[in-house]
Design goal:
Elements (H helix, E strand, L loop, with lengths): L8 H16 L32 E7 L6 H20 L8 E7 L4 H13 L5 E4 L3 H14 L3 E3 L6 H4 L4 E3 L4 H15 L4 E7 L3 H17 L2 E8 L7 H10 L3 E3 L4 H13 L6 E3 L6 H7 L7 E4 L8 H14 L5 H19 L5 H9 L4 E3 L2 E3 L11 E7 L2 E8 L2
Parallel strand pairs: 1-2, 1-3, 3-4, 4-5, 6-7, 6-8, 8-9, 9-10
Antiparallel strand pairs: 10-13, 11-12, 13-14
Helix pairs in contact: 1-3, 1-4, 2-12, 3-4, 6-7, 9-10, 12-13
Bound molecules: phenylalanine.
């Protein structure tokens, strides 16, 4: 999965571009920085506002539909599909229907880079939604930037993602905030003074959130007793957990993705560790409790929305989603839905569907009323929003509190 440190992203892009040229035999199709509003592309040619035709507006989504992060992509995809269905029922983009091209990243950074290249060159999408995992968005974003195709990540929280360039924005909060939220929760709400950390050393999301948490928790007066690492998919966490057990922490901070977190929880309980685990949005999956069972009960994580939020917007979304897919939407479904609707809103406001116009329209989104809160894209193309803290209780995420920026 997210194995793309920043320094190698340029090299990766070169590989992708070469692969793209080889795969499609058209170097011209890979030319960089083209303004897709300039004509010649099936989707970018007509003004967004003024529908010159009723040709479909094609958007792309790249996500993990299989592998250890499969629920991330599936939920996001369903959220996006619901948004498209609703938008098309009310006239699409000024009369043009919206259609979706979607590819599985399999939780792999190389795959992410290559499918985004495909979306930009072969499918000539007007905009790209994805990825969830920050490491995969860091692989896809340089490709979108290079081709001048706006990308909105619904859920990648690592700050570096939108730093890639002006084509890239997001509808979620970022990890300096999420780290602070977790630190405040540990220190103030749980009265924790001594915390152990266990994070994925190769995932930008995990390393970034661990660092943000450390900074915030120490500033509050707390101590990080020990800091341990793992690699995604590790079967055995005994060595790290044994060290953590001797440190006797009040809380164990595990900013990872759900499959590893659930395994860590089970092994921790086997070793007799009773301290609650605490993590970030990467825990958000029904698989967390399916795999973790009783071991993950009483642990906490921060997230973008709570299913228990009584607001009519949230409850209406949950009811519609359930009717459509037969399951309760997680945070990623909500974020995918919000990202898509915010994109459609920007398309309607944009003078054209060309990359530059559309990216500018996205970047000036203001007070957009989403399921995950009110979204205003700031100067760095990030969203500033509150986070919720959830407790795993009776096998389900249960609302504890909201922490505002
Ligand atoms: N924020 C995570 C990342 O950047 C992805 C994520 C978001 C996972 C929301 C689950 C829920 O990698």
């Amino acid at each position: 999965m997210s194995r793309v440190p920043g320094r190698s992203s340029t090299a990766l892009l070169a590989v992708i571009l070469a692969a793209c040229a080889a795969a499609y035999g058209v170097v011209a199709g890979c030319s960089s920085g083209t303004d897709r509003g300039g004509g010649g592309t099936p989707n970018g040619q007509s003004g967004a506002g003024k529908a010159a035709s009723n040709e479909p507006v094609v958007i792309g989504h790249y996500g993990s539909l299989t592998g250890a992060q499969a629920t991330f992509g599936i939920s996001t995809s369903q959220g996006i599909r619901l948004a498209i269905k609703q938008a098309n029922a009310t006239g699409g983009i000024n009369g043009r229907p919206i259609t979706l091209r979607e590819y599985d990243t399999k939780g792999d950074a190389r795959e992410a880079g290559s499918v985004v290249t495909r979306l930009c060159t072969n499918d000539k999408v007007v905009a790209v939604l994805g990825e969830v995992a920050s490491g995969l968005s860091l692989a896809g974003a340089p490709v979108c930037q290079e081709f001048g195709v706006p990308m909105i990540t619904p859920s990648s929280t690592n700050p570096r993602v939108t730093v890639v360039g002006d084509m890239i924005s997001r509808v979620c909060f970022i990890d300096p905030f999420q780290g602070l939220v977790c630190a405040k929760f540990a220190y103030e709400h749980r009265k924790a003074r001594k915390v152990a950390m266990l994070y994925d050393q190769a995932a930008p999301y995990s390393t970034g959130l661990a660092e943000e948490f450390r900074g915030a928790f120490e500033k509050l007066g707390g101590t990080i007793a020990t800091s341990q690492t793992y690699a995604e998919g590790d079967p055995d966490f005994n060595a790290q957990l044994t060290t953590i057990r001797s440190a006797e922490p009040d809380i164990i901070f595990v900013p990872g993705y759900y499959t590893d977190v659930a395994n860590i929880a089970m092994q921790a309980r086997k070793l007799g560790i009773t301290a609650p685990l605490l993590g970030g949005d990467g825990w958000d999956s029904t698989k967390l409790t399916e795999i973790g069972g009783p071991a993950i009960e009483g642990s906490y994580y921060s997230n973008h929305y709570s299913q228990q939020d009584p607001s009519p917007t949230v409850q209406k979304f949950i009811a519609t989603y359930k009717a459509e897919f037969g399951s309760t939407p997680d945070g990623l479904a909500a974020l995918g839905y919000d990202a898509a609707l915010l994109l459609f809103d920007a398309m309607k406001r944009s003078p054209s569907l060309g990359g530059k116009d559309l990216a500018a329209a996205i970047a000036t989104s203001k007070d957009f009323h989403g399921v995950t809160g009110t979204i205003t894209i700031d100067a760095d193309r990030n969203a500033v929003k509150p986070a919720v803290m959830l407790e795993v209780k009776g096998g389900a995420p249960t609302y504890v509190t909201t922490i505002a920026p």
